[in-house]
Task: structure prediction
Amino acid sequence: MTETVLAATEPFSFDMSLRALAAFAPCAGGHTIAGGRVRKAFLLGTEAVVADVGPAGGGPGVALTLHADRHLLPGERAAVHRAVARWLGLDDDLAAFLDVAGRDPAMATLLRAAHGLHQVRFSSLAEGAVYFALVQRSTQWFAAARKRRLAAAFGPSLTVDGVEHVAFPSLAMVAERDDAELIRFAGNRLRARRLREVVEGVAALDEEWLHTGPYEEVRKALLGVAGVGPFTAHALLLRVLGRPDGVPLGMAQLEDAARAVYGDPPPSPAELREAYGPSIGWWAYYVRTARSWQPDDAEIAVAA
Result:
């Protein structure tokens, strides 16, 4: 067991992270939240390491305790630290988004309700790629359930305080399964084929480059993977890789969210892109994640 503190870019609220994680349906069952802390297993090679994350004592960030079956080398601890930081979006710089949103009157109440929110995302590229392959022509609930069953079958686990925590398997671990096995988890032959295409195609790309390479080049590379269309590419870029440069604003979910925030008619996709620029993904995340956190009219009246 090792302990450390991971810093976060201000403003940051761990309470907001827990609230977002609790509502993150695609990853339901993949972590446990209790007592103001969260525990999740991460893959380290072929082993599971459990991260226990809580609020930092002072300054923005989180207190992290790692549980493992053996002593972890410094490089191994650093790898898990990096995975946790990406999972919780600790290094995300929201300054440009908050500057624009702070001058957007319709966003004022939402920003107050979600102060310090950073994006929480899929814990690994493999987990996100599998989910978005499974959710095509399916529902969020079924895709999340299939993803959990796949993890339980193929992912390593570690038991901490009597609770088993399963780490999501790597892209290679999923790709090595035969077609019959994948059909068991995908539900049908077509979805299993799509799952294999996406997993093998994404595995062939350099993961660090996906995180840091030029946005349009990365998007083009993802679109070159069989089974990955514009929706999946955008989803991987924002919800897995934490890249907010673009988002499909024409989606019904985002149109509905914009209408709820701005009224009818809401700003057009072109107007939103012009206003928020390369921070448009953070706008989409906030209006989708934190819109329900705003007090309703009755609460505002009581508070007044």
Remarks:
- The beta strands are 2-7, 32-34, 37-44, 47-55, 61-67, 157-160, 163-166.
- The chain has 16 helices and seven strands.
- The longest strand covers residues 47-55.
- The two ends are 48 Å apart (CA to CA).
